[in-house]
Amino acid sequence: MINYDVVVIGGGVAGYTSALRFLEQGLKTAVVSHGQSALHFSSGSIDVLSNSPVDGKAVRAPFDEIDRLTQQMPEHPYSKIGRASVLESLQWFKQFVGNHGLPLNHNQSLENHYRIASLGSLKATWLSQPYVFPLDFDYAALSSIKRIVLVSVEGFRDFQPEIARAKLASMPELEGIEVRVVKVGLDAAGLETRNCHEFRSIDVSRLLRQPQHFSQFCSQLRNVATPNDLVILPSLLGNGDGLTLMDKLAQETHLRFHEVPTMPPSLLGIRVEDTLRRAFIEAGGTLHVGDEVTSGVFRPSGEQLSLACIYTKKLKTVPINAEYFVLATGSFFSRGLVAGLYKVTEPIFDLDIATQGSRDQWYSERFFSQSSHPFLSFGVETNQHFQSTKAGRTLENLYCAGSILPHYDPIAHGCGGGVAISTGYKVAEHVIAKSSLNTIPDAISEQKKGEMA
């Protein structure tokens, strides 16, 4: 038998946000994670709200839009949290990861900014890493750019600069700015056992950690770009060392870089995951990595249910007990939800699911539809405090956070990171408040026992 105050199931942004808040408050906390999270596929930026769930229009001021959601979409996770708490959670997250070596930046106005994506499109976001060049909605930052230089790395096929160049060159906002592609080579002796067409970002990152290869890379970049350029570079540095090598690259070349995420694995996203995991372990958290929860034991608690313990694949018959549990296993991509022929289920505890109609109503007929696919807004039913339900009965100590929640579309609305952080944080606040109240009777009881003795 293993005992914790809180067990968080899932090692993504939502799960770690909750877990780190618990540790800050002195709660004994464990995270059960089956492996790599969706951060390995992410941009490494945090989107709060890019497109309105109400009318689909681009959002400039995301927190103003959250006020509107509260009135028009009360079931949206942001509506349950409220504008002030969403902002509080994001500011906490920004400060926390910054204190652990990963600075994140946003506009002072609290409005969105644009980042240049890997195929040359512009994506609205709210928090970005230091080497993501932020463009305001009025593109004022472009006035300082003489050229946009896209770097093509020989042997690396997960970034297509010619496609991005064509997209950028066609934008009216960039009229008068030269957009060009330059090539740099790699001495692939360190990768000689691999087909050069199979290099991934992590392979190149390992090569560039070697001083001689890094020095050659710097020299080539200095030869093809100037400090007046914006150098768009596929994210190839930072596997295991955070921003150390990117900082060194900027210092040695004196160039202005804009990193774009590549095909998975995305080093920008991995930096976020590494930062959160490292901070969790350093703070004394217990990480059950490479394991997954298989089942739980429920007990009646008045009209509600309580989750007494869980079992995992590795520990088999050894129960993990906790006062509170947080389910942050994600959506379909990470198997937090599973779609059968006629039914969507939550595979661990068989929690109640918010779905819409029969299977033919789960999706739009056209894959690239103007409207989002309904299944993207499916998730586990919860109350206002994100407590889940099973067979219509509320689970008083099992909370849900992140993309396992329903009534929002993280892709179409550009709000995945913001919902993950704000719901993970809000769930933690609910649990912290309840756990502090529950310790008072215990303290009184101990005092009476002492007096009786």
Quick structural overview:
This protein has 453 residues and is an alpha/beta fold.
Task: Give the percentage of residues in beta strands.
Answer: 15-25%
State the end-to-end distance: 31 Å
When the domains are counted, the total is 2
Question: Main β-sheet, in a few words?
Answer: 8 strands, mixed
Helix content: 25-40%
Structural class: alpha/beta
Instruction: Supply the CATH superfamily name of the largest domain.
Output: FAD/NAD(P)-binding domain
User: What's the total count of β strands?
Assistant: 18
CATH architecture of the largest domain, please?
Answer: 3-Layer(bba) Sandwich
CATH class of the largest domain: Alpha Beta
Output the CATH topology of the largest domain: FAD/NAD(P)-binding domain
InterPro entries: FAD-dep_OxRdtase_2_FAD-bd, FAD/NAD-bd_sf, G3P_DH_GlpB_su, Metab_Enz_Cyan_OpOx_G3PDH
Enzyme class: oxidoreductase
Keywords: Flavoprotein, FMN, Oxidoreductase
Domain FAD-dependent oxidoreductase 2 FAD-binding: 5-419
Describe the model.
The protein is an alpha/beta fold. The protein is globular. It has 10 helices and 18 strands. The chain has 2 domains: 2-59 and 272-441, FAD/NAD(P)-binding domain (3-Layer(bba) Sandwich); 118-260, no CATH class. Keywords: Flavoprotein, FMN, Oxidoreductase. Conversion of glycerol 3-phosphate to dihydroxyacetone. Uses fumarate or nitrate as electron acceptor. One of its GO terms (cellular component) is glycerol-3-phosphate dehydrogenase (FAD) complex. It catalyses: a quinone + sn-glycerol 3-phosphate = dihydroxyacetone phosphate + a quinol.
